[in-house]
Amino acid sequence: MRQSALFTKTRREAPADEVAKNAQLLIRAGYVHKEMAGVYSYLPLGLRVLKNIEQIIREEMNALGGQELVMTALQDKALWERTDRWDDEKVDSWFKIALKTGGETGLAITHEEPLTSIMTEHVSSYRDLPVMVYQFQTKFRNELRAKSGVMRGKEFLMKDLYSFARTDSEHQAQYDAAREAYKKIFKRLGIGERTYITFASGGVFSEFSEEFQTLSDAGEDTIFVDKEKKIAVNKEVMSDATLQKLGLTKEALVEKKVIEAGNIFHLGTRFSEALGLAYTDEQGKRHPVVMGSYGIGVTRMLGILAEVMSDEKGLAWPESVAPFKYHIVSLGQKGDEVSRAADALYADLTQKSIEVLYDDREARAGEKFADSDLIGIPYRIVVGKEALASGEYEVVARATGAVAKKTHGEIL
RNA sequence: CGGGCCGGCGUAUGAUGGUAGUACGCCUGCUUUGGGAGCAGGUAGACCGAGUUCGACUCUCGGCGGCCCGACCA
């Protein structure tokens, strides 16, 4: 894409009302727009990153055998009353809306209820299981205090996967497979090394749940990490008894700030029993379906990556999610030899379907480099007089600063 | 939800109970062109409502909105 045509502009200064690094950088670089507290719009560059994150997750969900669907944001109150999660005393994060017809509806906080309900229409035999279903969908949570930029909003995009099994052991196999898929996802997103499976409060269905926690000073949670074993314990469940159960020793643990990038839960039969999701086995006996749920916040992930992969100059996306692979920075003037060379390089890369942002604006070099650093595309190709003279372009890696010299042909 | 702070050109920010200024941006022109250029000219601003006052952007009250600390965060 030609940068002269991109409607978003960069800003030199961060907005005064944003403290979180992710929001400051994303706003300055023109990836997001803050609509209200905890509510952000995703502009063209931001959307591209979001779509890339989504696609990585989608590929791993499909590899798992997950089937994608999309459910509604508007929720049926009656369904949630059946699981006792409609009452504000029980769940305080609802956005409830009056219907013109007299009733009320709520904006989805999560989707266990509606999916379980859908499944009752399609699952009735042992032959129909096991199944895994997922979606990318907007969640709404009426947070008392939104904070941390795009990482804790009132409206956010989430991938949620749900598993349905006949037995506990079948469920466990699904759960274990989902855990492995999550590891692959975080690895592909470039945060595998700094993301730890963390034992946390399991709620009513099991002793522990597992969170995927990514090391970051911007984190809201505190965990104790065993770097050798690659596992961690959330501070909220930290105790001698817990350590003993997990086979960890206090000496090996280091306290760290983290952001929750994902979590996986055993749901047992709580939802299937409440909503009547059951199957008939070979003997003709009915059993409730054993469920699990698995979430990754997509918009939060964008925030985590902005937070973790950035420096004082700006963003530095990993290639797997970057809005473009190359950023051509032309130092030529309209119509001169340099800009003609940049045009040609842009045309050739585009022709090959290589994603490239082409800074063809009438601006000075300093401004273009500063913008390029801010926007954080993995490789910058500088097209200037030097390049024309030598026949080789400088290709600068944003994250490391490493400079390679490459000819037009080598880049293609 | 408890506590604190704040609301001014597009953005950032200074000052003030008495003409709302500066920088960046944006527009015009000239010069400049490998790390946010220079000169000249121009554009653009007080969240809403009520009150105090000769006079309110400034003080008071209410509303709306934002930020921070805590709580909360299947």
From TrEMBL:
<dbReference type="InterPro" id="IPR006195">
    <property type="entry name" value="aa-tRNA-synth_II"/>
</dbReference>
<keyword id="KW-0067">ATP-binding</keyword>
<dbReference type="Pfam" id="PF03129">
    <property type="entry name" value="HGTP_anticodon"/>
</dbReference>
<dbReference type="InterPro" id="IPR050062">
    <property type="entry name" value="Pro-tRNA_synthetase"/>
</dbReference>
<protein>
    <recommendedName>
        <fullName>Proline--tRNA ligase</fullName>
        <ecNumber>6.1.1.15</ecNumber>
    </recommendedName>
</protein>
<dbReference type="InterPro" id="IPR002314">
    <property type="entry name" value="aa-tRNA-synt_IIb"/>
</dbReference>
<dbReference type="InterPro" id="IPR045864">
    <property type="entry name" value="aa-tRNA-synth_II/BPL/LPL"/>
</dbReference>
<keyword id="KW-0436">Ligase</keyword>
<dbReference type="InterPro" id="IPR036621">
    <property type="entry name" value="Anticodon-bd_dom_sf"/>
</dbReference>
<dbReference type="GO" id="GO:0004827">
    <property type="term" value="F:proline-tRNA ligase activity"/>
</dbReference>
<dbReference type="Pfam" id="PF00587">
    <property type="entry name" value="tRNA-synt_2b"/>
</dbReference>
<dbReference type="InterPro" id="IPR044140">
    <property type="entry name" value="ProRS_anticodon_short"/>
</dbReference>
<keyword id="KW-0547">Nucleotide-binding</keyword>
<dbReference type="GO" id="GO:0006433">
    <property type="term" value="P:prolyl-tRNA aminoacylation"/>
</dbReference>
<dbReference type="InterPro" id="IPR002316">
    <property type="entry name" value="Pro-tRNA-ligase_IIa"/>
</dbReference>
<keyword id="KW-0030">Aminoacyl-tRNA synthetase</keyword>
<dbReference type="GO" id="GO:0005524">
    <property type="term" value="F:ATP binding"/>
</dbReference>
<keyword id="KW-0648">Protein biosynthesis</keyword>
<dbReference type="GO" id="GO:0005829">
    <property type="term" value="C:cytosol"/>
</dbReference>
<feature type="domain" description="Aminoacyl-transfer RNA synthetases class-II family profile">
    <location>
        <begin position="38"/>
        <end position="318"/>
    </location>
</feature>
<dbReference type="InterPro" id="IPR004154">
    <property type="entry name" value="Anticodon-bd"/>
</dbReference>
